[in-house]
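Chain A, query sequence.
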Amino acid sequence: MTETFIISFKLRNTYRVNSIIYSIKQLPLIKKVLSDSLYESSGLKTLANIISIMTEIVNTFIGKFIYMVLMVYMASILYSSDNADIFIHIFIFLTLCGGLLNTYMFNPTKDKYYAIIIMNIDAKKYTLSNYYYQLIKVFIGFLPFTLLFGILAGVSVWIALIMPLYVVSVKIIVSSYAIWDFKRTKKAKNENVPSAVLWTLVALFLLAAYVLPLLDIIIRPAVFVVLSVLCAAAAIYGFLKINSFEDYRKMYKQLLTQTNVYRGDKQNTAEAVKKASLNRIELDKNYVSNKSGFAYFHELFVQRHRKILTKSARFQAAVCLVMLAGALAGTFLDAEFKQTTNRLLLTYIPYFVFIMYCMNRGTTVTQAMFMNCDHSMLTYRIYRTPKVILGIFRERLKTLIKINLLPASVIAAGLMLLLYISGGTDNVWNYPALFMSIEAMSIFFSVHYLVMYYLLQPYNADTEIKSSTYKVVQILTYVVSYICIEVELPTVIFGMAMVLFCAVYCIVSLFLAYKYAPKTFRIRR
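Chain A, predicted structure.
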């Protein structure tokens, strides 16, 4: 089994190294001086191997760190109850969500297809060795952060130590259940396509994690210990079932074939998204418009694709209303929660940069635009002329801003109301500053993503993202948004700065789009 794992690791690393070299070759300026012979360069391969190993290490820890600090620790300190109890309570239910959504074993990936289907490696040895490796990564990745943030929250060290074991146990239980279900139904579950039942369970667990503490319903540490012991016992039984299962090849042959993994993970994902998008287009209705030219063309597109473009924004707005209602209830039920909320609204508004980044629909909308419009229209020369590109760009920018402003306006108005209810402020300018900063963030991300799309157009004819520059900008956007979490500024100052920055950024970005989009807005080869 060790030999099988080493082969699979080398295979996965080779694919990753070649992907890194390909990404380097796609960077502006660099791609013009680098040739395909780089794939044979031992020096560059060594560099790519180093990057690959660093990526493996970072992937082991960084996601867990962000998860623990944002989803668990930062959330736990907002409640007035004992931080340690809240910390444990949230961790329990979020772990259940993670166990349901991420099994690894039922994630169809290219390296699995190459190893099991193409190279005919023993499916059981390959699966189990890599599954053990993933479980070890999960344990090692969580351990330092359950200790760090657990101790900060007041959790005893020995309970913090068993938290990673609880995570591993839940994942083993879910995987063993999925194998049992495959034996029963002969249908392999694809974890990338969760069922409605699964999403419902995840939603219930999320509500249990964050809403129950407001009602003073909390799972105490003693109960968590008992739960962990029961899960560990169930995991041992599940582990034995996973090890005794013999039909891994049959399972993966079905799973990997039905996801067409041989055509590439990214392409498979894109095709799944495209298929889902096509199913949601409303072509059976006679839409009309009193506009003309570019505005007419764009309005018909929006009307036919409104489920794709606006449904998620409406859902976000509804969720924000529910969360606002919960926060308002918390201010009436708990004096300490009320005081903490007021303090956060007057100091930690930069935190919402990351929240607005996560909520913004820019990437999804531009992807829908390419898949359902530009993918075909860019093959016509007239569609690539400056007049047409800029005309459509203006209409799309208006639409994207409107879509993102729906949930943003709910948040902005809700925060103003929450600030007033939680005790108000001596400086009346905090209210408009609060509202305008949230609106400015929404507009900024709307402009940012659309300009990125037009200047860097990342998709090829198969709707795969092929632009390394686009990925780098995406990463930088995430990093800057995340850094804002740590910023503490008075609401008035941050609000003014955010509005000014948004205005300047929009002017510069729109100028660049108007100047360069006619040259850059092309289907990638």
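Residues 293-520 form one domain. The chain has a mean pLDDT of 80.
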